[in-house]
């Protein structure tokens, strides 16, 4: 039996706060968000130094035609990255983890980015026996409209990896999940790495806004900003 299976779970328009916003079901919104995925998130994924992982980008079932139409405008996705109907995701995930001792389930919004070393970090990291969550608390926030990058720290951010015993997961075990992310630090967890993520602020965010509180952390050195972005999305 192999040691661990690493799967990145992402989504386009299946979160409650997005589904309740009818814009997330429209052609215009979907085209825009898939454009962000292709120009930022996908580049981050393709840049990973270890490509031994699977990505599932979930979408609301009744937006199938709009999703496929939007995807048809871009090059074919790598074999390990798939857009999938929300209703099919759970069964597909279970198929993928058979034969592995551990499941590492990484959360990533479809407009955000991980450092190019993150997958390798997950393979190398040896957590304590009872640890359920690996949490990334420090990273960056990027305003792609005004091209501003600032340092970012949050106790319970949307950048974390859940660890499961595969057999228990297949039998239905799930960590204690709640709306929002504060729950992740209320369970056995460890803080991993530094500056492992970029939270993306743009003109059509659901929640993330580059507001006044980030201005004091803005990185003003242009060369440093370019160097950081290269480590997340390459040359652009």
From TrEMBL:
It comes from the Bacteria. InterPro entries: Nucleotide-diphossugar_trans, Put_rhamnosyl_transferase. Transmembrane segments: none annotated. Pfam families: Rhamno_transf. This is Glycosyltransferase family 2 protein. It comes from Oceanirhabdus seepicola.
């Amino acid at each position: 039996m192999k040691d661990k299976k690493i799967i990145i779970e992402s989504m386009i328009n299946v979160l409650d706060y997005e589904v309740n916003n009818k814009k997330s079901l429209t052609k215009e919104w979907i085209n825009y968000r898939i454009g962000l995925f292709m120009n930022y998130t996908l580049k981050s994924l393709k840049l990973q130094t270890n490509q031994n992982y699977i990505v599932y980008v979930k979408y609301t079932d009744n937006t199938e035609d709009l999703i496929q139409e939007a995807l048809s405008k871009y090059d074919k996705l790598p074999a390990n990255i798939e857009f999938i109907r929300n209703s099919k995701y759970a069964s597909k995930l279970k198929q993928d983890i058979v034969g592995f001792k551990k499941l590492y389930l990484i959360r990533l919004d479809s407009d955000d980015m991980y450092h190019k070393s993150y997958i390798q970090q997950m393979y190398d990291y040896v957590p304590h026996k009872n640890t359920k969550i690996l949490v990334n608390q420090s990273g960056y926030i990027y305003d792609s409209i005004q091209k501003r990058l600032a340092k970012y720290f949050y106790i319970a951010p949307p950048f974390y990896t859940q660890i499961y015993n595969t057999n228990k997961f297949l039998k239905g075990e799930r960590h204690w999940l709640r709306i929002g992310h504060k729950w992740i630090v209320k369970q056995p967890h460890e803080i991993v790495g530094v500056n492992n993520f970029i939270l993306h602020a743009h003109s059509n965010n659901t929640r993330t806004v580059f507001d006044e509180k980030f201005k004091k952390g803005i990185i003003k050195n242009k060369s440093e900003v370019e160097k950081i972005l290269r480590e997340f999305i390459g040359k652009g």
